[in-house]
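Consider the following input, taken from an annotated entry for SDR family NAD(P)-dependent oxidoreductase (Streptomyces kanamyceticus).
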Amino acid sequence: MPAWTARDIPDQSGRRAVVTGANSGIGYVTARELARRGAHVVLACRSAERGLRAVDELRAEVPDADVEFGRLDLADLASVRQFAEAYDDGRLDLLVNNAGVMALPYRRTADGFETQFGVNHLGHFALTGLLLPRLLGTPGARVISVSSGAHALGNIDIGDLNSERHYRRWIAYGRSKTANLLFIHELARRLAAVGSEVVAAAAHPGYASTNLQATGPRMEGRRTAERFMELGNRIIGQAAETGALPTLYAATEPRVKPDWFTGPAWGVRGAPTRSWRAKWTLNDVAGERLWAASEDLTGVTYETLKT
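Applying the prediction step yields:
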């Protein structure tokens, strides 16, 4: 079978999509390719300046694109709620939880959560829950969370979700990516339990050359580490256009099933296919415990999925 490419994306006309972190990297490519195939896409970004610039760039590349900017700061639950309240379309076919941060120095979100866990998991957990009624009311809807092969760096520590006892930036990143997969696993289970046909799945880009890798070292002024990351992008990484393919596959390919995890064929690069995942990301008990903790921390409860 030929390798799957963006040309294989089915027609998206009439579909409504939200892509978080869509101002750059794989998020931008995801939004662009969905729009190219006819979807109305909301580019949900923290920075209005960068988000509006991305909308202009996307329209320059795809002149008939039906896109708009929506302000969303996943590090602030008030912003998440404002975004969900402002989403006034009656339907939502696709939510792509793409935005994320990687290996940052220890910081806290506006609500006091460790930043990687707060942005990568809790912000998206809250957003998905708040938009869930629209997803449930839209035939063929999907939720796609972008995780990482780095989830293999560590399982979650349910007793220290905010890494307060001991913070190691890469372990915290891996745990946040494990949380993404456990969230999708538990969401898929709960959707099935209430008879919903909404597909919850996950994807990872492999090693995509974006601005994500160098952000942490740059924040701390670690120039050697920043140069090392930039070198890795040039030598190992694949372009954002290729790195976005697993997300686009998970979001649009009819064969995708609930709780699938899609990634590059060769781990760090290649055409999208089913990906290996650590066994702890399929643990029902861990998924339930993380879900309960996430509801408690965010105040967002998935009432329609309670059985």
